[in-house]
Amino acid sequence: MQWDRLLASMAKRDWSDLHLQEGLKPKARSQGRIVDLETAPLGPGDTLAFIRGAAGEKAEPILREQGAYDFATELGGAGRFRINAFYADGKLAVAIRLLPTKLRTIEELGLPLQVMELVMRPRGLLLVTGPTGSGKSTTLAGLINHINSNSQKHIITIEQPIEYKFETKRCLVRQREVGRDVADFPSALHQALRQNPDVIVVGEMRDLETTRTALSAAETGHLVLATLHTSSAARTIERIVGQYPQSEQDLIRMQLSNGLIGILCQQLVPRAEGDGRIAAYEFLRVPPGVSHLIRQGQSHKIENHIQTGQKFGMQLLDDHLARLVGDGLVTAEDALRYANDPEKVAEKLHRLEH
Q1: What residues contact residue 46 under an 8 Å CB cut-off, 6+ apart?
Q2: I need a labelling partner for 209 at 20 to 30 A (CA). Which of 6, 41, 162, 272 fits?
Q3: What domains are defined for the chain?
Q4: In 3-state terms, what secondary structure has residue 263?
Q5: Distances (CA, A) of 20 to 16, 82, 167
Q6: Residues ≥6 apart with Cβ < 8 Å to 239
Q7: What global pTM score does this model have?
Q8: b vs e for 143-154, b when ≥16 Cβ sit within 10 Å of the residue's Cβ?
């Protein structure tokens, strides 16, 4: 299998993802939907040949030992790709994500402009959340790019694998890849605290120790940016607190109330005209009132706080979805499909019609 031609074709046709598995036709994700490619099913050895071509011989022993292997590769003229090789139904499979080559600005991403103020703060924890494929990595890259362009700081990123590469502009940017430069996320975070950073970027808060260290770093004078797989601000807080034993949860709520400065949740929704996808956002700033709710374990009240904080740029994901429908950018059907509370969105859309 000519792996480079396959990746070049992916970039040319603007597929966001490509899936390979022996015995099946290659499948692409186009405009958010999975489609079969007009080609023969992959034969024995085709998937392994792709992995060898894209990653070299180093991938096979890790695949055999761990059952999966994450890496990124770059193809001149086509772009950069994030690749996960794994086993499914006893056969090798590959999931490939095309990474945009151009870093987008906060304005181009359509982010609430108040996010600019948060990423320029000297300390605190800012979380970017959403399901897989919702554009978290692209948003995180845009935030890093904004810091890199507008301040003079030392930024350390911890990723698996490195997805976007950053040139040093006004900041010193050091990108560390788990599995290549450091053993794991917790070790990288502990080491980063001894490397004189101003900003620490954690590709994903995957485990309790990483979460604990990230919170501590945010409390002790660093700006920490990280991602989670959660769909709303309230669920993000519940997810973090729920990682800890019951005996520690009050302490963690206190740490969160002191360190958390904002949560940005996002979904990528198909555009109404069928040309690409558009991001819908939920945005929470953490003023004293929200800090109090976190300390008291009343995260269920955060939704009301977001609704009353619109003048500070806060918004619920469902409210943004309803506005996108009103502006003709997404369909009502898709807004309901991606909503956290479809019934409330349906009520909002009904009011818009009348």
Answers
A1: 1, 20, 22
A2: 162
A3: 3-99 (3.30.450.90), 106-315 (3.40.50.300)
A4: strand
A5: 14, 14, 32
A6: 228, 230
A7: 0.89
A8: bbbbbbeebebe
